[in-house]
Amino acid sequence: MNKRLLNSAIACATMALLIACSDDDNKIEPTPTAPAPSAQTNKGAYVLSSGYWGENNASIQYIDLENHRVINDDMYFYANGEKLGDSGQDLLLYGSKLYCTVSTSEKVVIMDKSCKVLKSHSLYVDPDILPNDIIIDSDPRYLAAHNGKVYFTSYDGTVSRIDTTTLEIEAKVNIGDVPEAITVANNKLYVNLSNYGSGNKVAVIDIATFTKIKEIRVALNPYSTCFTGSDGYVYVISNGNYAGDASIPESDWAYSTLQRIYPETDMITEEWPATFACQYGDDIYAIYSEYYLPETHKCVKYNLVNKSEYDFIDLEEFKYDGYACANSINVNPDNGDAYVCCTPWGQYGVVKVFNKQGDYQHEYTVGYCPSKVIFTE
Q1: pLDDT tens for residues 145-200?
Q2: Contact predicate 182/153, CB 8 Å
Q3: pLDDT of res. 37
Q4: Distance between CA atoms of 295 and 247, rounded to whole angstroms?
Q5: In this structure, are residues 375 and 64 in contact, taking their beta carbons and an 8 Å threshold?
Q6: Could you state, in order of their start, the residue ranges of all structural domains in the chain?
Q7: Which of 165, 229, 241, 319 could form a disulfide with 279, with the two C-beta atoms 3.0–4.6 Å apart?
Q8: What is the CB neighbour count within 10 angstroms for residue 209?
Q9: CATH superfamily of 3-23+44-375
């Protein structure tokens, strides 16, 4: 197995809770629906459905939040006459444009709000032109934006900077092994360095000089979550080493952990158990779900003021065929509603919506393996 395939396989393994790699025979194929005109003018949300690895079925849906319906099941396809690609990784709305990283297809796509392509950057490097059979994993991963620039991480160990006016990649910086989720705080970029599950650092980049200035030691395997809360803190989840796996001695189990970094000093101030998380106001919405330890499965709110934990959603309703399938949580900044993505194996994904009190509101059928919801407001 060459290095590119090995790395992709490792990435799929580390996403056991995020993307269910299923049997093709059990898949329910989509029935395309006609595109809705001017979807972007509605108050709504975009959903990135990552698709199944190796099957070129990543897609983007649009939810009309005023009428509570999905009005386009594959916006990219209808806008461009082709599929988005293989393994949609991250989606960002910044200004009037959408930015999407498509990891296994090795490209970054810049679109208008109807998903019409404005610029597509192929990051593929032909291994035949490289010496000594070196293969560069240029797979783009996560996105962040600041002051007219968009940044994305790549498996080649770099963070790249896109100018949002010219749409060109204008600079990149080497920061370390396997950079993943990224955020902006205090004029710095914070980047998880997962090193395929063996890393334990967050790289810090000075935005003004676009140079790496330090590393912060965190718990094992900082991976898909790194965001700046409304309180100004940086929140990082380290996903550990699959605690409960019978092949790992219990004394060596590393649990999924949410850490809070104070950007003025870059010191870690608090920790909570969490696998996925987001923030709204004074609350952290957190899903904690160790794959091999079903007794850990819960969805709670951590209140940052009174330091209390509150039950939020019963994760039992997110099980399909006995497997937990809640794989992300995003919050609507307009009203605090939580959007939980679910990935039942071999079927369309579902986005379920709950209000701030944890009461069920709506659910939407979307594409395969939905992984992120972003909002137009």
Answers
A1: 999 999 999 999 999 999 999 999 999 999 999 999 999 999 999 999 999 999 99
A2: yes
A3: 43
A4: 19
A5: no
A6: 3-23+44-375
A7: 229
A8: 9
A9: YVTN repeat-like/Quinoprotein amine dehydrogenase (2.130.10.10)
